[in-house]
Amino acid sequence: MNEFLTEQRLDYISDSDAHVTTDSFRHIAQQPSHNWPNYESTPLYDRSSLAAVEEDIRTVASVWFEHAAHESVDEFVRQLPLAYLDLTPHDRYASATRYEIEQLYRVFLLKELHGWTYETALVEYLQQSTEVREQLGFDSVPDQSTLWRTWNKRFTTDLRETVQTAARTILIKAQNADVTVPREPERNLQHRDSDKGESVPDDRTVLEQAEKITDHISRVVFPAFSLDRGDGYEIHENAYWSLQTYLGLRENLAANEGARSFIHESTRDRTPLGHGHRDQIRDLPIEQIREMYRQAVQQLTNQLAGTEEFFRAGIVAIDITEDDPFTGDRAGHEDEIIGTKEKTDEYAYQWATVQLVGNAVPLVLDSRPVRKGESRKEIVEDLLDSAEELVHVDNVLMDREFDSQHILEMISQRGLSYVVPKRMQTSEKAQAKRLLQRGQDRYETDRKLHLGKNEWHETTLIYRRKENSEHDDHRQYSVFMSNRGGSFLTEYGYRWEIESGYRSIKRFMGATTSTDFGLRFFYFAFACLLYSIWRAVDLLVQVELTGEYEHSPIVTADNTLTLLKKETGIG
Questions:
Q1: What is the C-alpha separation between 43 and 268, in angstroms, rounded?
Q2: Which of 5, 135, 239, 327 has the fewest CB atoms inside 10 Å of its own CB, making it the most exposed?
Q3: How far is CA 87 from CA 165, 490, 534, in A?
Q4: Helix-then-strand count for the chain, H and E
Q5: What is the pTM (predicted TM-score) of this model?
Q6: Chain-centre distance of CA 269, in angstroms?
Q7: Considering all CA atoms of the chain, what is the largest pairwise distance in Å, rounded to the nearest integer?
Q8: Cβ neighbours for 373, distance < 8 A, ≥ 6 positions apart
Q9: Picking from 171-185, 263-277, 340-354, which range would have the lowest pLDDT averaged per residue?
Q10: Which residues does 101 contact at the CB level (< 8 Å), separation at least 6?
């Protein structure tokens, strides 16, 4: 994290502030997991960036209201660190004024939080509290006409929208932490310019809205990625993310060919060559790639958290996918190019993911490489740790390769439910034969699975007969395990979304024949990010235009990639 920015934020906190307040801000500022916008490394953010203000408020609010002593949204606004902020470009008044724009920004945050329609209520609020006036730095209370002119004449349109967005974020974060709020926040984003009477948006409207949202999403997400090159480089690091996005525009496009085309299509003065691009990516450690990915997805989930639709989250699926079969010499890479799940004579890189499924937007919350010798339990624990930091998880769906009783016990210990198909052993085959003889389509029975040292994991086995099975024996049945009984079995059908998602993700990957493990993983992780951006943009567009979210996208993946290409400096 940028140390200068930490100091700038903390400088705002005076010695007279409550001890708990200071501790909260220091805790936030000093945690590397909180991704402050880095104003010095990217042109997307500077000290006058309103997008950065929105991100900072979201970050601070997400921690502030979790503290037991913080029970007031008004107090949050009064204590919010803003000394580092430069609102001058958003102030239409060029001459000196009696009231500073930062003071007025806080005042209108309060007005928006309370949902006051007119400035009169705001004036009365300020008049009634000497403490509030002192904290905001007012020697006198602005009158109603001054406040009206400030909002309608002095503030730019963008600044007004930032006030509304920030207030909504504060209300939602407070409400999620069970803090009393002065009004109910709108969980659905409102598109103020849309035609309310049009129930089905046309393609042009969808694309216009997608462009606006993609622009915002790209400015929020891509700063999470960094090459850690220091200063003095002629090619900006954003050019590398732009090229990687460009490689995802066409199937099987490798870096060398893509870089040559990128030169002509990019609006940048300098772009990386193929070998230079690969060299920079190869220098990134896998753990750094994963941390950057998690920060980027955190930004995505922050953008979605204000919608009711995102709170359908709760079901995640964990799975392993294979890269294309590797046909070269894997000598020295046997621990990385480990084969296929179907135990063929082919070899391939393998990647594990945890994804949101069900009615939620299907984001890839985290991904990781799979190496020879790693246990499935270790992989599941790692991915669940990431998922639970990002979203609320209720239920975990997995394939039968994860049917170990030790994995199931670990999931239960976390207080989560699971549905996992079981590989049929002798006893399951015998039971399936008995069900077939009786013509029974479904059967449930409790089972204890031995964990060792006289410890057991209790689960329920659910036998279910397949429709239109090609077999005439016990293979007509599938066996599932669940720690919540058979009622959760219908959710397992959501797992098909993972395979559909993998097809799109691999469509977004650049082509390479390199055996470099880090480079290979970066290509996969970046493709997961492009896929997740697409699905996030689609959700926000649907909610903006229709007020609802249907799982079938109305924004295509190609449209999103093309817009990302434009927003990252290609078009």
A1: 13
A2: 327
A3: 16, 52, 32
A4: 20, 8
A5: 0.65
A6: 32
A7: 90
A8: 335
A9: 263-277
A10: 87, 88, 90, 91, 154
